[in-house]
């Protein structure tokens, strides 16, 4: 019985391990090598969102400044390198707010899939650190905004968009929402199909541009190439579209994003 349980636990661990390597190379240096010369054009971002441990931040206003100053070198750097901060997993002091922290969930990898899951424990942690100025942030297939809201359109290219965001003034934009089981960060209990997840607000509309499903094995990715409109908290608008979720070497969760700002 113990041998059988060990085998089942090992298989479960392999399944979750495959989930991890699908977006973040546990075998670093084989799957997730950084391209020597990233290829992006003006109006694009290339975001390495493979890390389980970090959020990566984009500031559209900074990108706009580089364009206005015609600083080509600065713009390329801003399009491919981003401020990043680790996900806190411990509480530095006090009792916490009872909500911010790491939620451990069991996922039904071998049954009905990861959409079936159960909360097992909670560990309080510090709030997520952020840069002074940012517009959107990325963690694997998760996206959040800085107090903004998002609308999914039916347009499939940036060229199809209306000339002005005024066409969307009457539309319903969805703000970020609390999540306890979507931002996977702790792999330490993978052998039991348990994943530690950050409790944090994400934009569940914008995050639909890249969906991960288990089963099948290996995990299946589905990309939604619709254009999304982001309404910033300052009233400005941006249009974004996921063009690709793999880099030139085939590593997943390398996001090539078309953007238009201000829109």
TrEMBL record:
Domain of life of the source: Bacteria
InterPro entries: HmuY (IPR025921)
Pfam families per the UniProt record, alphabetical: HmuY (PF14064)
Stated name of the protein: HmuY family protein
Lineage, top ranks: Bacteria, Pseudomonadati, Bacteroidota, Bacteroidia, Bacteroidales
């Amino acid at each position: 019985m113990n041998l059988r349980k060990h085998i089942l636990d090992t298989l479960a661990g392999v399944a979750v391990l495959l989930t991890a390597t699908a977006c973040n190379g546990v075998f670093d240096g084989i799957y997730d090598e950084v391209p020597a010369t990233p290829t992006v054009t003006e109006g694009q971002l290339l975001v390495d969102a493979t890390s389980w441990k970090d959020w990566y931040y984009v500031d559209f206003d900074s990108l706009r400044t580089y364009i206005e100053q015609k600083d080509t070198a600065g713009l390329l750097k801003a399009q491919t390198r981003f401020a990043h901060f680790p996900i806190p997993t411990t509480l530095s002091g006090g009792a916490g707010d009872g909500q911010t922290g790491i939620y451990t969930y069991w996922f039904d990898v071998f049954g009905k899939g990861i959409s079936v899951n159960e909360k097992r424990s909670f560990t309080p942690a510090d709030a997520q650190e952020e840069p002074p100025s940012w517009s959107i942030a990325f963690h694997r297939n998760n996206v959040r905004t800085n107090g903004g809201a998002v609308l999914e359109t039916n347009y499939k290219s940036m060229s199809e968009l209306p000339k002005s965001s005024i066409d969307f003034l009457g539309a319903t934009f969805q703000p970020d929402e609390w999540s306890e089981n979507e931002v996977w960060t702790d792999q330490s209990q993978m052998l039991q199909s348990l994943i530690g997840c950050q409790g944090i607000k994400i934009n569940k509309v914008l995050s639909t541009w890249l969906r991960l499903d288990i089963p099948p094995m290996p995990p299946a990715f589905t990309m939604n190439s619709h254009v999304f409109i982001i309404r910033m908290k300052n009233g400005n608008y941006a249009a974004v579209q996921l063009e690709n979720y793999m880099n030139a070497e085939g590593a997943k969760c390398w996001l090539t994003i078309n953007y238009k700002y201000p829109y």
